[in-house]
Amino acid sequence: MTAATHLSPFPQVPDSADAVLEGLDPEQRAVATALHGPVCVLAGAGTGKTRAITHRIAYGVRAGILQPASVLAVTFTNRAAGEMRGRLRQLGAGGVQARTFHSAALRQLQYFWPKAVGGGLPRLVERKVQLVAEAAARCRVRLDRNELRDVTGEIEWAKVTQTVPGDYPAAAAKSGRDVPRDAAEISQIYAMYEQLKRDRAVIDFEDVLLLTVGILQDRDDIADHVRSQYQHFVVDEYQDVSPLQQRLLELWLGDRQSLCVVGDASQTIYSFTGATPDHLLNFRTKHPDATVVKLVRDYRSTPQVVHLANGLLSQARGRAAEHRLELVSQREAGPEPVYTEYADEPTEAEGTARRIRDLITAGVPAGEIAVLYRINAQSEVYEQALADAGVPYQLRGAERFFERQEVRKAIHGLRSAARFGNNDPLLDDVVDLPSQTRAVLSGNGWTTQPPAGSGAVRDQWESLAALVRLAEDFAKARPAATLPDLVTELDERAAAQHAPTVQGVTLASLHSAKGLEWDAVFLVGLTEGMMPITYAKTDEQIEEERRLLYVGVTRARLHLGLSWALSRSPGGRASRRPSRFLGGLRPGSASSGSRGAGGGGGVEHGGSGSRGTGGMARPRRRSSALCRVCGRTLTDAGEVKLMRCEDCPSDMDEALYERLRDWRAGQAQELGQPAYCVFTDKTLMAIAEAAPAEAGELAVIPGVGARKLTRFGADVLALCAGQEPGGADGED
User: Fold this and answer.
1) What DSSP string describes 385-447?
2) Using CA atoms, how far apart are residues 536 and 582, in angstroms rounded to an integer?
3) pLDDT digits over 307-331, tens only?
4) CA spacing 20 to 30 A to 367: which of 30, 169, 291, 633?
5) What's 700's DSSP letter?
6) Which of the pair, 87 or 110, is modelled with greater confidence?
7) Rounded to an integer, what is the distance from CA 633 to the centroid of its chain?
8) Position 617 confidence tier, pLDDT thresholds 50, 70, 90
9) pTM of the model
């Protein structure tokens, strides 16, 4: 088989339609040659689904069965759409449109708006959160930054599930959502937000889909026009479609059957955004004559990794579990997964760092190693452990720990308390360092008990809790340490973290790791309360946590480590238990109950197959970095710094960017350091796009941070204002 994990970046273009099929396994070939009628591809992790569907399109085009301009392939990220276009070009089918749902809809909306409505398309609002903040203020509801982000997420969920403001409270309750504020308040803010958009003649990212659906529903002539152009549809990651995206797809199709969908219900981990696998699972019910192809030959992972992945799903429950696929590794045998129990979290991080250093010494590139955790707040201890071990690393899908706004604000508070603590009534009755830290951070949102639910408020608390634990550990190591000593320690840690890492070990949350793979993966913090997370209460939410761990396991090609710590800090009570999901899988553990393995690979034709019904509850949306142009979730660290997708249009002030580059060059020469130690190119681009007018606006740009804000902020703000900088203050 040639469905290799690593493909040549410049393969030779096949010289014929038959040559397109060369190297495909029997099931992939079945996908590529199934060009008529509805087709459903159930593709397990690492089975070459993108390879199969791009070869299907290319084979149809090269054989003269499909016209390139009549094919629309849709997926969920600009990166995935770009990869699909690149592969199609390499296969000689460069004229095919491969887009995200939103990109395809926006293109149609821009074209048909003058005819359907008249005039130009309303402006697409770039920063939805600002409008939501104004709506909340008009409703006399005060939201902090994190609540604002979470309420914005609730509005987005309501819109993609086609829920109007008045129906939001009932819909949220029915879906089991853990709402960040009173549902009636959110409904009121949602209604005011929609009113403000109408008053200002602007639309948001979700409106692009809603308006396209509305036009296609109301104007048969426009719908016929679209259907005459696009006659064949391919949908990747079909388990992630929202009800609104499904409705748009149905309108594109009309009464035709030329549809190919690809997905895996066992990789449904984004239900908090409105995604549901029901459309994938119901495909055979809606299309009884569909051809169903199952891809189970795993070309990514060794038999040992695949065995563990299959074992995880064998214990699963619920409708998605009934349709799980049993993977069959096509690789040679490799090392067994390593299960490691540690006494405490710092020891777990240090042990993981040592194992990573050993792998690098043995020849595994740092860029082919990842540490995956459940929440971003877990990153700090691994950042420090890797730095102490001299291992380069890079964060994906999150700001560095010390660059998070709540962390910067907390450290500022600790620094003020260290300088003026004698005048701070919060510190009157506390003498030891941990108590002083807890007292200061209580003013920033830290409490003895975590807030209910997930989202930005919980993430903020986790970051502050990490600082509290650090203070406790620091005091144990240095009993005589004072608050100024702790601030010095924090500053030193933050400074060490700023070193650029072009090639390094990836630190990422499990959610942001979807679609990626590495030679070695370390899944850490696998304890009850973290995996599954404490706020996963219902059976459906627990099963989504299991699928999240399954996604993490299947990211590994060769080496896989799974670890947990019995206590939080050294010397602490060993009260933690390993994740229930590892029961019966790790050595010496009892099974929590298992089921027979899922179906193997192969092809099923119309008239057979499961037709179960049911649905999945959706846990509440976790906050994440969103593109300020198109609204998509950002996972790449460079894109997070830009606050937009690489492919999205830039509104950068080119002249300002050049002034910033010239200033940076002078600063770097003066400091005797490389230019990126001042600011990276991505950070400069983000500054030139945002053109901040005050320190607060500059501080929130990823890559700036408190230290650089203090050192370079005045100069940067002067440049943004068109003035001459006054020079850095020279502070270390």
Assistant:
1) HHHHTT--EEEESS--GGGSHHHHHHHHHHHHHHHHGGG-GGGTT--SHHHHHHHHHHTTT--
2) 17
3) 999 999 988 888 888 888 899 999 9
4) 633
5) T
6) 110
7) 6
8) very low
9) 0.66
Mind listing the pLDDT tens digit for each residue in 535-572?
788 888 899 999 999 999 999 999 999 999 999 888 88
Q: Which residues partner with 622 through β-bridges?
A: none
Virtual torsion, Cα 189, 195, 198, 204, nearest 10 deg: 10
Closest CA to 110 of 96, 98, 124: 124
Contact of 556 with 459, CB cutoff 8 Å:
no
Residue 636: pLDDT band (50, 70, 90) is low
3-state secondary structure of 39: strand
Give CA angle at 489 (485, 491), nearest 5°: 115
Phi, psi (degrees; rounded to nearest 5) at 306: -65, -40
User: pLDDT tens, 437-473?
Assistant: 988 888 888 888 877 654 567 667 877 888 888 888 8
Question: Would you say the C-alpha torsion 192, 198, 199, 201 has a positive or negative sign?
Answer: positive
Which amino acid appears at position 7 of this protein? L
User: How many Cβ atoms sit within 10 Å of the Cβ of residue 716?
Assistant: 25
pLDDT, residue 321, reads 81
Give me the phi and psi of 278, to 5 degrees please.
-60, -40
> Strand 232-235 vs strand 71-75: parallel, antiparallel, or unpaired?
parallel
Task: Find out whether 303 and 331 touch, Cβ atoms under 8 Å.
Answer: yes
Cα distance between residue 481 and residue 470, in whole Å: 13
Buried b / exposed e along 287-322 (16+ C-beta atoms within 10 A) = beebbbbbbbbbbbbbbbbbebbbbbbbbbebbbbb
Q: Residue 266 is encoded by which pair of tokens? A: 């066992």
CA–CA separation, 222 vs 108, rounded Å? 10
Number of Cβ atoms within 10 Å of the Cβ of 666:
16
| 325-355 as b/e: b if 16+ CB within 10 A | bbbebbbeebeebebbebbbbbbbbbbbbeb
The backbone torsions φ and ψ at residue 362, rounded to the nearest 5 degrees and listed phi first, read -80, -5
Question: What is the average per-residue pLDDT within 120-130?
Answer: 86
User: Which residues in 595-634 are b (16+ Cβ under 10 Å) and which e?
Assistant: eeebbebeebeeeebeeeeeebbbbbbbbbbbbbbbbbbb
The amino acid at residue 250 is: E
Confidence band (pLDDT; 50, 70, 90) for 1? very low
- Return the number of other C-beta atoms located less than 10 Å from residue 503's C-beta: 11
